[in-house]
Amino acid sequence: MGITLDKISKSYGKIKALSNISFNVKPGELFGLIGPDGAGKTTLFRILTTLLIPDEGVATVAGYDLVKDYKNIRNNVGYMPGKFSLYQDLTIEENLHFFATIFGTTVEENYQIIKDIYVQIEPFKHRRAGKLSGGMKQKLALSCALIHKPKVLFLDEPTTGVDPVSRKEFWEMLKRLQQTGITILVSTPYMDEAALCDRIALIQHGKILEIDSPKMIVKHYPKPLYNVKAHNMYLLINSLNHYEHKHSVYPFGEFIHYTDSRKDFNPDDLKNYLEHENLFHVEIETTTPTIEDTFMELAK
Amino acid sequence: MKRFVGFIKKEFYHIFRDRRSLFILFGMPIAQILLFGFAITNEINNVDIAVLDQAKDATSKEIINKIAASKHFSIIDIIEQESSIEAIFKKGKVKAVLQFDNNFGSNLIKYQQTTVQILIDATDPNMASTINNYITAILKNYQSDINDNVTLNYQIIPKSRMVYNAELKSVYMFVPGVMTVILMLVSAMMTSISITREKEQGTMEILLVSPLKPFQVIIGKVFPYIFLSVINALVIVLLSIFVFNVPVNGSFILLGFESVLFIITSLALGILISTISATQQTAMMISLMGLMLPTILLSGFIFPISSMPLPLQVISNIIPAKWFIIIVKGIMLKGVGIGFILKETLILVVMTMVFIGISVKKYKIRLE
Questions:
Q1: Please, what's the b/e burial string for A80-93 (b: 16 or more CB within 10 A of its CB; e: otherwise)?
Q2: In chain A, what are the domains?
Q3: Which residue in chain B is spatially nearest to A87 when comparing CA positions?
Q4: Which residues form the ABC transporter domain (chain A) (predicted)?
C-alpha cells in the first residue's frame, strides 16, 4: 500500500526534470523529499498523482499501476499541491463540503480523521478561503486533502510560506496522521523539517543523491566537520575561502562549517593561519554534520 | 449524481459571489438591448423644422398641421421671407425648412398638381435623407387622403426625390442581433473563463486528482450557464415585447427551443476555447476577438451579408450567429414555423456536435 518507483524519468523538451528515480515508500511511512527549488520535486508529485505520465520507468501507488490504474489511484490518494489550490471565493466550510462531495463522501462520515486539524479553523468556518492567513489556508488544504480518507497522502511543499509556529504545528499534525496508518510523501526545501521524517531522499537536478533515515543520512558525510568561530564573521569567511587547503566553507548560524581537503588535517594549522590573517578569538572544534551539511556535500 | 450536484452548487457560488461576472451576466443584456433600442436608431424624433408659407391657403395649412401633429417633427419657427431661410439654417436652429409657393394651393386646384420645396440641412447626410423620407411620406399620406374624397387626381410633388423608407423601425432589426450577441458572449466567454480559472488557480490539478470524470467537470461547468442564459434570453424577449413593442409573431416555444440550441452551441465553443487557452486572459481575448467581432460584423447583425465581398460571405457561413439571427428574425418578425428554418436549425445542431466532439477529444485528463 506504499509507493514504489522504478527508474522514473521525465523531460520537458530538452530539460531533463527527473532522471532514473527509484525508491520505495513503505506503507505507513512518513517519507520526505528534500531538495531546493527546481530539483524536480513537483514533477515527481505530479507523476505520482497521475497528472503527468513519465517518459520512462514504472511506478505504483497504493498498489496500483501509475498509467493503467490511474482511476484507482485518483480514488485513493490525497494531494495538496504546492500552490494554494482551493476556491478562494468559497468559505472554509463550503470548500470542505465540496471536496467531500466530489469524493463521494460527507464531512460527517470522515470527521474523525480531520477533527484534530479542523477544530483549529472551525471557528472561522464562514470565512472565505481567500481571506485566511497562510497557516489557516494550509490547515484547510490539508483537511480537504484528507476528507476522503486517502491511503496515500501527497504534500508538495506544504510549509512553504508558512510561519515557524504553524510549521511546527503542521509537522506535529503529520506525525499524528501517520499514527492512523496513512502513507505520507512530503516534500520540503527546509532541512530542519527533514529530521522529522522516517526516511528522506535528498534530490537535486532531478537525481536522487541519497536515501536514508535522517539519523543515518548524516553518516554519509565523508569528512570530519569543524565549527569555526572568530571575532569577525565576514573576515573569517573570506580568510577561510582563501585558505589553500579548504574543501568546503558554509556559514551555519554563529559558526562556519569547515572541512579540509587533507587527510591528516590538524586544526592547529588552521588556527595559526587564521590568527596570521588578523582574526582574534579563533575557536575550532569538531561537530556532527547536519542534514543540510550532508546535502551540500552530496550536491557538490 | 450527488457529486455532480455538489459541483453545480459550487459553480453557482462562484457566479453569485463574483460581482463582475454577475454584472456581465445580467447588467449587460439589459444595457445593450436598451442602448440599441433607444440610442442607436435610424429613426428621427422631434426634429426642429421651420415653415415658410407664402401661400397661406387651406391646403398648405392642412399639410403644416399634419406635419406639426407628427411626433417626428416640431415646427419651432414660422418665417415670412425667403431671405431669412439662410439665416435660420446658419444659426443651426432647424434641420429643415418647408417652403410653400404663393400659388401652392391654386396650382393644385387648377392643374391637379403642385410643388413644395423642402430644404434640408445636409451636414449630417444620413439624418438629412431620413428627414427627407419622413416628410415625403407625410405628403404622400396627405395626398392619398384628399384623393379619397374626390374624383380628380390631385398631386403634390415634393421637389426632392425619395426612396420609400418611412416607418422602418430599427429596433426590430436590432433585437435578434443583440440577443445573438449576448447569448454568445455570456455562454462562450463565461464558460471559457470559468474553466480556465480553475486551471489558473491550480484547482484543476485537484479536480483531476479526484474521481470526478472529465465530462462531469465540463457538464458541471456548463449547466449553470445554460440556466442563466435561458433567463437572459427570456429577459431580452420580454424587454423587446414590452418596451419596444416588437412582436413575437411565431411560436414562443419554438423560439425558446432554438435559443436553447444556440446557447448550447455557444457553450460548446466556450469549452473549446478553454481547452486551448491556459489563462483567463487568453480565454477572454480569444472569446472577444475570435467570437465577438465575427458575431457582430459577419453575422448580418449590422452589415447585410449580401453586400459583403464574396470571401466574407463564404466565411459568414461558419459563424453560428448568422444562422441563429436568421432563425430569430424568422420566428419573431415573420412568424414562420419550424419548416422554414429547418436548414438553419440543422446547421446549428451539426456545428454543436462538431464543437463538442473536438472539445471532448482535446480535454486533458492529465496536466499536459
A1: bbbebbbbbbbbbb
A2: 3-219 (3.40.50.300), 222-299 (3.30.70.100)
A3: B203
A4: 3-230
